[in-house]
Structure formats: structure tokens, C-alpha cells
Amino acid sequence: MAMKASLQLRVGTHLTMTPQLQQAIALLQLSTLDLRQEIQQALESNPMLELDDEFGELAVSEAPEEDWASEIPDELSTDSEWSDTYQDLGGPAGGSEGPDFERQASGESLQGHLSWQLAMLELDDRDRQIAESLIDAVDNAGYLTQPLDDLRDGLKAQGLDGLRTREVEQVLLRLQQFEPTGVFARDLRECLMLQLASLPDDTPLLPQARRLVRQFLEALAGDDRRLLKRRLGLDDQALDTVIGLIRSLDPRPGSDFSSSDNDYVIPDLLAYHNSRGWHVELNQQALPRLRIQPDYAALIRRADKSQDNQFLKDNLQEARWLMKSLSSRNDTLLRVGREIMARQIDFLEAGEEAMKPLILADIAQTVEMHESTISRVTTQKYIHTPRGVFELKFFFSSQVGGNEGNGDAHSSTAIRARLRKLIQEEPPRKPLSDSKLVSLLDEAGISVARRTVAKYREAMGIPASSERKRLR
Predict the structure, then answer these.
(1) Which helix (H) or strand (E) is 457 found in, with range?
(2) CB-hemisphere CA count at 13 Å for 470?
(3) For the chain, how many helices (H) and strands (E)?
(4) Which of helix, strand or coil describes residue 382?
(5) Locations of Acidic residues compositional bias (predicted)?
(6) What is the pLDDT of residues 318-370, one digit of tens each?
(7) DSSP H helical segments within 285-369, as ranges?
(8) What are 110-119's contacts with CB under 8 Å, separation 24+?
(9) Residue 50: φ, ψ to 5°
């Protein structure tokens, strides 16, 4: 077959991903915190950009000079605090007696609190290294998650030759005296025993409580009252007292401390109600406002083709692209947010039980955008409402029961909220079975299968009725 060159003319359309379009899409899917970092990098690299106002700066009133100590004393007692000599501007107005421990501990991690106590403990270098490894092995709940043999092997690899498990256990016993009580336990039984050991000896029925935790914790979990009364030699009233004492303990002693990987959310939108109804607006404090630097912009000369002038032109164009992309992001976010809340007004007024079915296609069709755009807009974007701060994706929920457009359709979120409420209000001695929950939902006009109820219950971390039975 002979091969020859030829020309063909074809007509077609295709989307070209220009740098401006790529930037707009990238900014659209960034969270507020990530976008702040992106804007800060642009401010540092582009001389044509500057903040439109003093964003994020607060005026601080100066305290009268006579309210402060005139000079720093040469010596302070070892047990003194900075606030003993100098005022604490972070304290509440009017002053208060004693240090604000809640404020001081609000941002402290469990590991930091344990390390602070370790610093006050007299240990040699070898035991201190063991203690530091034990602190690193404690999880956020306060439990020691690694076996002592593994910790011993790791310490031996770090240079502690001849280390035995017994030495690690001895250091562990000293650390188990730290606050919060129950920390460094290796399981729930040890955690509860540590807390019972710290109670006064004259605590009513304390020996029976210790024996129950030590020998019959599984029977307590299974609600085997008959076995507990027989083995502990208690009547119903005494057994209730023992169980109440055990329930007063904290099974997660480290949970009151903040985790080191906390995620902070800045809402992009604000939903509020006034005499004219519900409104959704952009959070003006979420992002800084940018503008073109007028002095540098005035230096640009159109006819000048020097390298410096071209540098200013390129940066000016990039600054305009960024500002246009930010404006487009805000407009898209506001349009989508308003449409979502317009469809979920009942949630704002009545809570999760009034949530309506909603999918991405519903919003995309109304605002005339692609579903992928709606997905980007609602991912890691948050709205502050009178009921709390929610991700925009929270308001999308699948339809359960009924046909599309019919009034008998319910959202999965509303059904889960109704289930949670029914279980919270159930009789403690006679929990509701899945079949009974189906009947109660049916009486409320919600028709679902028993397997659907079981799936939602398990997704919310709620055990079955046989395991939910508890005493009061």
C-alpha cells in the first residue's frame, strides 16, 4: 500500500486548561486555612500584592504604668509565679484569686503534662530515659499501648545494655502515681484498680469494689447481677452502691487533655436569623482582602521593555489573576451555600430530625454548575449556624423510603437522628430491639427495613439491645 501525506480539516471544541483556570480550580478546593497559607505565600513573593487593611491585628490598650512593677526584682523565690509579681493580661477583667488553671491546661497535651511531672521526679539518667519512653508510648486515652518487652528491646537498641523487663516495670510503677489517676494502665481493669487504690480507705464498700473489678469485671459488663450478688455476698442495694462507685471512675483518664494534632476550623459562611428570615453571608474575617500595590503599579510604563518593567508587568498580571480567582471562589461558595441552606431551612429550625434528602445533582442543577464543582466547593468548607459549625457536605444525605418528589421520603441523617433519640429515651432496664425501633419509626411515618436500622445503629457506634442493657 502506498503511503502519502494529506491535509484534513476537522471542526471540534475542547476545553483548554489555561494557567488561570488551573489556579481557579486549585483555589476552589482549598480549605480556609490552606488558602490563608497560599495567600501569605503570594504576598511574600509578589510585590504587587498587599493587604487591603490591617487584617488580623487587634488594638491592645496600654495598661497604666503605675499598675506594673517599676523594675524586675533581683531574686524571686523558687516557688513563685510570674503572675505573683506581674499582672496577667490574659486574665478575666476585675482579677481573680489564684491562677487560672483551666486556661493554663486548655492547650496542654497529655504527654506534656506527664513530662512536666517527670521533671519533678528524682531519677537517674537510666531510669529517666526509661520513663521518657513510657510517656511516648501512652495514647490519648492514657493507656500504655506497647508491651513492656517491646519497650525494653527498643531501649536496649538505644544503648541501655543489660536492661531487664523488671527495671521497666519498676519505673512504670512510679509513673502510675502520676496525675490523672489511672494513667499508664495497660488495660481497663488496671486503670480502674489504680483509681480505686487512690480512694480513701474509709470509702463505703471499697474492698468489694476492688474485688469486683479484679475478678468479675466481665460479669459486670454482662449485667450478671445474680452472680455478682452471690460471689460478693451483697444485696441489691449494696451492689448498686458498688456499681455506682465503679461508674464514677474514669475509663479514659487522658481524654481530658488536648491532642497534639487538633484540627481548627474557620467557617467560610455564616448563617443567621433576624426579623426578615434566614440569611447566609461570607465570613469576612476568614480571609484577608488583597489589593494592588499602587506605588509599584504606578512605576509600570507600557512602552518600556526593560527587564525591571517586564518583571512588574508579570507580577501585576499574576496579582490580578489571583484576585479574580479569589472573587470567583467566594461567589461560587456563597451561591452554593445559600442554595443548600434554602433547602435545609427545616434543619436550622428543628435540628437533624428535619433534615431533607439532598444530593450533589440537586444543587448542581439549580446553580448551573457541574457536580464535580459542587463537590469541590463543599469539601472542607464550613458554615457557622446557630446549631453549630458544619461542613457543607454534612447537609447532603441520601433518600430512604418513598419516591423522589414524594412527601414520604426521608433522609438518612434524619433517620439516624430519630434512632439516636429513641435509644437515648429508652427504658434502661428494657432497651429497644431493632424490630421495636422499626415499629416506632413506622408509627412516625418512616418506613425502613430492620437491616437498615441495624446498619445505622452500628454506624453510630451503638451496640445491640442485648449489650445496651444497663443498670441505674
Answers:
(1) helix 450-459
(2) 12
(3) 22, 8
(4) strand
(5) 63-82
(6) 999 999 989 999 999 999 999 999 999 988 888 888 888 888 889 999 999 88
(7) 294-298, 307-343, 345-350, 360-367
(8) 110/138, 110/140, 110/142, 110/183, 110/254, 110/257, 111/135, 111/136, 111/138, 111/260, 113/179, 113/257, 114/138, 114/175, 114/178, 114/183, 117/178, 117/179, 118/175, 118/178
(9) -155, 160
Closest CA to 168 of 138, 139, 148, 143: 148
Confidence of residue 259 (pLDDT cuts 50, 70, 90): low
The angle formed by the CA atoms of residues 286, 292 and 295, to the nearest 5 degrees, is 135
The confidence score (pLDDT) of residue 56 equals 44
- The DSSP 8-state label assigned to residue 290 in this structure reads E
Number of C-alpha atoms within 13 angstroms, CB side, residue 114? 33
The closest of 419, 422, 431, 421 to 457, measured between CA atoms, is: 419
Please give the backbone phi and psi of residue 191, each rounded to the nearest 5 degrees, phi first. -60, -45
- Kindly state the cell numbers that stand for 209: 469494689
Pairing of strands 277-282, 388-391: unpaired
Q: What kind and span of H or E run contains 101? A: helix 101-105
Identify whether 19 is preceded by a cis peptide bond (ω within 30 of 0): no
The mean pLDDT value for 446-458 works out to 85
For 190-219, give the DSSP string.
HHHHHHHHTS-TTSTTHHHHHHHHHH-HHH
Give yes or no for a contact between 426 and 432, defined as CB atoms under 8 angstroms apart: yes
Separation between Cα atoms, residue 360 and residue 372, nearest integer Å: 9
- Quote the pLDDT of residue 105: 39
Total-model pTM: 0.57
Measured CA angle at 273 (ends 272, 278), to 5 deg: 90
How does pLDDT run across 26-68, given as a tens digit for each residue? Answer: 888 888 888 888 999 999 999 988 888 654 444 444 444 444 4
Element (DSSP H or E) covering residue 129: helix 125-136
> What is the Rg, in whole angstroms, of the alpha carbon atoms belonging to the chain?
32
pLDDT at 396 over 70: yes
Q: In this structure, what DSSP letter does residue 68 have?
A: S
